[in-house]
Write a structure and sequence with these properties.
- There is one protein chain.
- The protein has 127 residues and is mostly helical.
- It is 76% helix and 0% strand.
- The protein has four helices and no strands.
- α2 crosses α4.
């Protein structure tokens, strides 16, 4: 099961690579989803979510898996922006894209750390 998790995580990372370097990216028909920064935030939120899920079996503490997933997403986002700058003619690196990537990744990271604590506190208060 752990290998399947890693495979899904890697497949999504490859999908982001393709979407980042595609000279003519797909444009969604739904207006809100065609907003570039929302696409970035959602893509990197999912990358972080899949990363934390995939790394969980390999880390001694869940928080460590989420931390690695978050930092991987940040580094990968920076790498993709650099690749757009250096490897494509039709795409450009944008600092606000990196910020959107970080917002998506950071949101998942914070939720992953806060939700278990909140559920523990709620369970303690029930008795």
């Amino acid at each position: 099961m752990a290998k399947l998790r890693l495979l899904v995580f890697c497949a999504w990372a490859v999908c982001i690579l393709w979407l980042s370097l595609d000279p003519a990216p797909f444009r969604p028909l739904v207006k809100l989803l065609s907003w570039d920064k929302l696409q970035h935030a959602l893509a990197y939120a999912l990358l972080t979510l899949l990363g934390g899920w995939a790394l969980g079996p390999f880390c001694s503490r869940p928080a460590l898996a989420w931390r690695w997933a978050f930092f991987f997403a940040l580094a990968y986002g920076a790498l993709m922006e650099g690749a757009q700058l250096l490897l494509t003619r039709s795409r450009s690196a944008e600092p606000w894209d990196f910020v959107a990537n970080a917002v998506g990744a950071g949101t998942v990271f914070l939720l992953a750390l806060l939700l278990p604590a909140l559920s523990r506190n709620g369970a303690e208060g029930e008795g």
